[in-house]
Amino acid sequence: MAAERSDTLIGDDVVRMLGAQGQTSQVLAQVKDGHVTLSGDVPDAAAKQQVEAQVAAIEGVRGVRSHLNIDSGRRSFGPRGRAVRDNPDGTDDARMGDIDLDENG
């Protein structure tokens, strides 16, 4: 029986794999006991499936929990796959008082 890989080594491989693909720049990964949890945004269903399959194939990964969202670009700007969120929580900053729209006040 081969020795289990540490979560740190698995995490290093996951980060390296995600970094090699420009379309997965909005993906976060957490590793616990060989199980990888993915969250964040990908540009399309094909990218989501590819990321999940590639992570599952990494040596030592015991399971993948995917919380990946397909980013339609509706609430973001920037190149497809490298979206920058202007309001990730969906709140309107002007209504929340974070931006002063009145130049005189």
Automatic annotation (TrEMBL):
Residues 6-72 form the BON domain. It comes from the Bacteria. InterPro entries: BON_dom. This is BON domain-containing protein. It comes from Stenotrophomonas nitritireducens. Residues 70-105 are annotated as: Disordered. Residues 83-98 have a biased composition (Basic and acidic residues). Pfam families: BON (PF04972).
